[in-house]
Design a protein that fits this description.
- The protein is an alpha/beta fold and about 300 residues long.
- Helices cover about 35% and strands about 15% of the residues.
- The longest helix is centred in the middle third of the chain and has 22 residues, at about 180-200.
Length: about 300
Amino acid sequence: MRTFPRALCGALAIVFTWATVVGSAEQADARRPRKLIAIGWDLYSDTQWIRRHHVEMQKRPFDGIVINVVGRREDGTAVQLRQTFATEPWKYEWFEEAVEDLKACRWTTFTDNFIMVHVNPGRVDWFDDDAWPAVIEHWRIAARVARASGAAGICFDPEPYNPPYAPFRYGAPPGDRSRSYEEYAAQVRARGRAIMEAVANEYPDITILSLFLNSICGRATGHANPDPVLAKEGYGLLPAFLDGWLDVAPPTVTLVDGHEYAYRYNSELQFLRAANLIRGACQELVSYKNRAKYRAQVQTG
C-alpha cells in the first residue's frame, strides 16, 4: 500500500528555496517571493496518483514538488521523460495522458511544480551528430509537457547515474580524449544553445531549476584561465553548457542554481558563502559577454 505523501516526507528529501536577490531582502521578496520546492529520491512517478491525491498533498507546507513523468509508447511500454540523454526518437503523444492527469489537478498552494529531467542514461557523445537531434527533441518535449501541464518549468539533475557514463566530465565515457578540453567545451556550449532554443520556443518564460550549475565548479574560480582546473573537475563541462543556455535564452527565462550540496550545511554562514559564490565568482566560468545575463537570470537556490 502506498503511503502519503512519498516525496514530501522521505528522509532523503531536499528542499529548494530561491528568490531574486536585488538590493535589500525586502526588495527581493517584493520582486520574486521565495519558493519552497520539495524533491526526493522517491519522486512521484504516477501522475494518476497525484491526480487522486493532489488536494490532500497541498496540506504540506510547500510551493511545489518535482514530478517524474512517465509516458507510454504505442505498445504500452513505459518511457521515462527524465531520460533525455538517450537516442530513441520520442513522440509528444506518448506523454499526453500524464499531461491530462496534471491538468486535472486543482493546484492552490502547489503553484510551482517542476518536471524532472536527467543527464541520463548519458550514452551520447557531444560530437555525435546522428544522436543529438533526439536529445534536443527530448528537451523540447519536456518543455512542452511542463507548459501544457501548468508546471513552472523543468528541474534538471546533471548527475550521472549510469556509470561509466558521465557527460559533463571531460574524458569520461562516452567522451574522447583525442579531443582537447577546449574542443569539448565549445561543442558542449553549442549543444546547450540548441537545447535552450528548443526549450524557449516551447516555453518562453520557463524556469529551469538545476540541482546545481556553476556552484559545483567553484574551485575553478579565481584563476586567470579556469580551463585547466575545469578539465579535471567532475562537472567541468557544465559551465560551458550553461554558457550555451545564456547565449540564446530570452530574458523571460529564469535559471536557478540549486546548489544541492547545501543539504550538508548547518550554519547561516555556509549558506551566505555559497550564495555569494553563485552570485559573484561563478560568473567567471561563463563568457564575458554572458555575465550580465548571468547576473540577471541566474538565481541562487
